[in-house]
Amino acid sequence: MGFLITILVVAAAAHYYLWRRLVRPVTRPGSRARRVAAWALAALPVPLLLTRLGERFGTGVEHVLAWPGYLWLAVMFYLVVFSLVMEIPRALAVLAVRQRERASGLASADAPPVAALAAPGASTAGSPAEIIGEERPDLTAGVEGAGGIDRRMFISRAATAIVGTGALATVGYGMATALGDPVIERVPIRLPRLDPRMSGLRIAVVSDIHLGPLTGRGHTERIVRMINGLQADVVTIVGDLVDGTVAELGPLAVPLKDLESRYGSYFVTGNHEYFTSGGPQQWIDELGSLGVRSLRNERVEIRHAGAVLDLAGVNDLGGTGIGDGPDFGKALAGRDAARPVVLLAHQPVQVATAAGHGVDLQLSGHTHGGQMAPFNAIVKLQQPVVSGLAQFPRSGGGETQLYVTRGAGFWGPPVRVGAPPEITLVELYT
């Protein structure tokens, strides 16, 4: 509920800002256009609110309202971003108009008032000053007709047009990216402790598939088809598979039974599995029936060409509050320290603990690569890596490497800007 309240507060502030920047300056007080825009701005967030409530309480309304609700969230976000970008150009343009008005005012100080230009006895009703009320007329442009606008309103309307066009174009591009095929990232990684006989071992990594009200079975089928095309030795799903219960989304996960790999498919929980009503166990059982093994603070041995690698997995931090959090000791205790270990952990921030346990490579997701720039800058405040490969000092010497995949799906708006969806093929070398 706290998260929902935060969304409401932020959304209210964003809508007020948009009113101040995109509606009020471009419409006249009391005009029909202003009233319509005000009501529209008030109504547009309602589908999102109802969608979030439906997702939380399982009303079913989210399946109808999710698309308009989340699309408006994306449009609103980029309207705010482009409005902020336009603040300085807008301010400079208004300043230039003011300076011109002052200069014009000084030059025409001895000129008769505008009203005196009318014929003697003529009525001044319907004059620009009366029509636009509190808005200042452009005295430098002469007397305007009833439909005229002053330079300041022209600047505001031009800025609004730029903001609106930029936001809609960005969201359109982001939708095409999010709903298109994930990018295949081939990432060679050297592990000094890897037995040379295992050199070339291929691990397919996918995370943040986010099966939910905006995705269909085709979303899963495409991901499975692309992973199978990689001919991986191991397939790993690094959390945030779903945004709902097995009863709601079970049919969308069925294609996972067709995953192909030499040594099996593995899953670890993400924070969204703990948001699901009933918790993650229902999905752990469902995935087991589909041939995907969940690593619950445990590890398995991957034997290849006579050599052995440990593949471990820890629960997400989201399970800590219910006694189902990560347990690195349980997952890694008692293993042969001479052989390498690859760890599946949903959140990159878990790498600090992984390094303390001598992990060679951690595979994570969670960040979506920021999903919608400039969110990537905000993600950096919470996670050590937004996407890609990084190194961290390891306990006892050496380095723990961390690879963060951008995820194959999306959360919230079906929009990705600057962070295309990704399926990763990690190739291990000595």
UniProtKB/TrEMBL annotation:
| Gene Ontology cellular-component terms listed | membrane
Q: Which GO terms describe its molecular function?
A: metal ion binding; UDP-2,3-diacylglucosamine hydrolase activity
Record field: transmembrane: 37-53, 65-86
Give the protein's recorded name. Answer: Membrane protein
Q: Which UniProt keywords apply?
A: Hydrolase, Membrane, Metal-binding, Transmembrane, Transmembrane helix
Pfam families listed in its UniProt record: Metallophos
Q: Name the domain of life.
A: Bacteria
Q: Which SUPFAM superfamilies match?
A: Metallo-dependent phosphatases
Q: Which organism is it from?
A: Planotetraspora thailandica
Q: Which InterPro entries match?
A: Calcineurin-like_PHP, Metallo-depent_PP-like, Metallophosphoesterase_sf
Q: Does the keyword Transmembrane helix apply?
A: yes
GO BP terms: lipid A biosynthetic process
- Ranges for the Calcineurin-like phosphoesterase domain? 201-369
